[in-house]
């Protein structure tokens, strides 16, 4: 069992980067005004046209103030909530370089705006209540023949009540989302923390799987990766991985109650489809099913035509969607189908949260958390369930054609080979695009190809992990097609994660892994190696100025290095603590050997990783 510590904080953003940013800007990029409007500020001295794109207002032009040089726009008013946004400089989407909060995603890169409530609180607010622990885990998947990853939430009393076992909720994010989104955008941990403090929910473990695991595989291995997200689920690699690999891992590493009465599954958008498909196909394992802004197949065997049996197995069948959601027609049709088949369900509708959005996803999640693993409350909700609204014939339908428009053919970047890596960026109107990496002093020019796609191939540092970004007509931009974003407080570059690299999780095979957890009240991150033996040394990893607690692990591969060396028998059991130099606070035996590595002493992440490896080998 891995070592866990208490997480009592706001997002894991305390960051840094060795790449471009204005040192100290003297303005805030977003200002929430008393009337509910928001004023946006953005500095780009080279741009000729700038817009801001925010979910509550759409894409709106900004005006440049001749005195300050700042681009500005005031939009709204908008209801208190969290909204994704970005700036668009001369047609190129740019994250807010001053905002530490961002939206993890395989594709688009957005920052997060949080509009607080003028009075009262919101379900996702970070309150002064006991907080649970969030861990990042890796596990070997026999389905994938590779290592997969997930995020696990443990309730506040998990570490203290060592004899208590807990129900588990498998919660899946949407298309192109990573496993982090229900944490960093959906705030599932803070919503549940608040409900537990009120006595309004049952204690539970929440597991956030990665819904698109074949994207983690090396090119050409095991599965032909489709470039389009799939509408059909069941029997696919993700479903098999959840049931056959992730669930056994969770149940062997955490104190869980392993029966259908104590398992729930659900999700948002594609994750709702995946969750319903897995749950309905495995009613011997799940009795709580939740769909947020989604629907699923109507041909799952032995489910819909056996209503009495199906109803007897399901404590809660909860379906929510916005009437302004582009999936509303499909979701309503699925609800009506269940009614026709005599299968009970709870139905919830919204009309004020901008349709297919994470505002709805959070709202629906808070509603269902009050019911999960509470048979009396769930039964009362099911008995009160109403029929689906009648069809008008005007409901939008999500068809393959709609999906093709929403998910056009992607640009593959980076594209890895064992001896090369190719970077691509689509900018049809750009005059010049170049690639900047942390190991090169000068940007590398890129060449414009068909459809306005610029590219460059590198043959050096191919297996290294390094930060990089594009310079598009003087504007620094993270790679919009790379899900690996360096978690920096200011400008966030992308970073490489070659599946062929020696310490890549994708290439590790079936080995044991440690877990990383965070304690932001003390501003520390902690990792314990997978060995069951007592740690024999503490390694303190000090981030450089601007780096977060995540940086040494996500970009520096610290946990991957220890996992691999431990499996090879070359590393003693260790405890790794990452924190600012001024706030190091290790909770370990004072007789234990302590070593320190400072990120600021090295130029690149590869140098830092190499230094850590040499230190581990010398212990």
Protein model, in words:
This protein has 619 residues and is of the alpha+beta class. The protein contains twelve helices and 32 strands. Helix 6 (328-341) links the parallel strand 17 (316-322) and strand 18 (346-350). The protein starts with 29 loop residues before the first strand and ends with a helix. Residues 1-19 and 222-232 have low confidence and may be disordered.
CATH class of the domain at 133-383, please? Alpha Beta
Alpha-carbon distance between the termini?
23 Å
The CATH architecture designation of the domain at 133-383 is 3-Layer(aba) Sandwich
Helix percent reads: 10-25%
Tell me the structural class: alpha+beta
* Overall form: globular
Sequence of strands across the biggest β-sheet: 18-17-16-15-13-14-12-11-28-29-31-30-32
Arithmetic mean of pLDDT: 90
Strand share of the residues?
25-35%
* Helix segment tally: 12
Q: Could you please say which CATH topology of the domain at 133-383 applies here?
A: Rossmann fold
Describe the sheet with the most strands: 13 strands, mixed
Low-confidence stretches: 1-19, 222-232
Structural Rg: 24 Å
What's the CATH superfamily of the domain at 133-383, by name?
Alpha/Beta hydrolase fold, catalytic domain
Number of strands: 32
Short description:
20% of the residues lie in helices and 26% in strands. It is built from twelve helices and 32 strands.
Which descriptors apply to this entry?
619 residues, alpha+beta, Immunoglobulin-like, Rossmann fold, 13-stranded mixed beta sheet, six-stranded antiparallel beta sheet, 12 helices, 20% helix, 26% strand
């Amino acid at each position: 069992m891995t070592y866990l510590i208490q997480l009592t904080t706001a997002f894991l953003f305390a960051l840094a980067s060795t790449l471009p940013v204005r040192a100290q800007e003297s303005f805030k990029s977003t200002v929430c005004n008393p009337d509910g409007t928001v004023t946006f500020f953005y500095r780009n001295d080279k741009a000729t046209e700038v817009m801001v794109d925010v979910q509550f207002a759409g894409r709106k032009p900004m005006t440049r103030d001749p005195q300050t040089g700042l681009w500005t726009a005031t939009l709204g008013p908008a209801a208190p909530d969290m909204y994704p946004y970005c700036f668009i400089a001369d047609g190129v989407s740019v994250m807010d370089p001053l905002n530490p909060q961002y939206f993890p995603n395989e594709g688009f890169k957005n920052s997060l705006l949080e509009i607080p409530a003028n009075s009262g609180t919101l379900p996702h607010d970070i309150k002064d209540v006991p907080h649970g622990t969030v861990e990042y885990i890796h596990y070997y998947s026999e389905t994938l023949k590779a290592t997969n990853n997930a995020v696990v939430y443990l309730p506040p009393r998990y570490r203290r009540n060592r004899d208590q076992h807990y129900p588990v909720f498998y919660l899946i994010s949407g298309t192109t989302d990573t496993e982090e989104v229900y944490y960093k955008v959906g705030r599932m941990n803070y919503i549940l923390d608040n409900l537990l403090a009120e006595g309004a929910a049952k204690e539970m473990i929440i597991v956030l799987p990665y819904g698109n695991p074949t994207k983690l595989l090396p090119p050409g291995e095991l599965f032909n990766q489709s470039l389009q997200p799939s509408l059909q689920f069941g029997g696919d690699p993700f479903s098999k991985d959840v049931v056959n690999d992730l669930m056994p891992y969770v149940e062997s590493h955490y104190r869980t109650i392993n029966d259908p009465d104590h398992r729930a599954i659900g999700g948002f958008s594609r994750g709702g489809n995946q969750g319903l498909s897995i749950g309905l196909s495995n009613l011997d394992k799940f009795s709580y099913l939740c769909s947020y802004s989604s629907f699923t197949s109507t041909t799952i065997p032995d489910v819909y035509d056996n209503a009495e049996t199906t109803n007897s197995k399901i404590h809660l069948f909860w379906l929510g969607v916005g009437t302004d959601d582009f999936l509303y027609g499909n979701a309503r049709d699925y609800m009506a189908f269940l009614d026709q088949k005599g299968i009970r369900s709870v139905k919830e509708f919204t009309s004020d949260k901008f349709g297919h959005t994470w505002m709805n996803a959070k709202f629906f999640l808070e509603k269902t958390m009050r019911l999960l693993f509470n048979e009396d409350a769930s039964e009362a909700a099911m008995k009160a369930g109403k029929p689906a609204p009648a069809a008008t014939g005007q409901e939008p339908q999500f068809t393959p054609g709609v999906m093709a428009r929403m998910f056009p053919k992607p640009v593959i970047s980076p594209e890895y080979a064992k001896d090369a890596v190719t970077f691509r960026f689509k900018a049809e109107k750009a005059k010049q695009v170049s690639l900047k990496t942390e190991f090169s002093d000068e940007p590398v020019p890129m060449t414009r190809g068909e459809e306005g796609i610029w590219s460059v191939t590198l043959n050096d540092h191919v297996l290294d992990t390094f930060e990089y970004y594009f310079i598009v007509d003087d504007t620094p931009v993270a790679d919009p097609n790379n899900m690996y974003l360096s978690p920096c407080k200011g400008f966030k570059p992308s970073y490489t994660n070659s599946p062929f690299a020696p310490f890549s999780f994708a290439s590790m095979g079936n080995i044991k892994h440690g877990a990383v957890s965070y304690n932001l009240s003390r501003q520390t991150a902690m990792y314990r190696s997978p060995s069951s033996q007592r740690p024999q040394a503490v390694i303190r990893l000090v981030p450089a100025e601007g780096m977060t607690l995540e940086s040494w692990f996500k970009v520096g591969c610290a946990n991957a290095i220890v996992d691999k060396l431990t499996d090879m028998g070359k590393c003693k059991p260790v405890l790794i603590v990452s924190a600012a130099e001024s706030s190091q606070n290790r909770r370990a035996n004072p007789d234990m050997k302590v070593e320190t590595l400072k990120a600021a002493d090295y130029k690149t992440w590869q140098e830092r990783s190499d230094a850590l490896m040499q230190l581990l080998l010398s212990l």
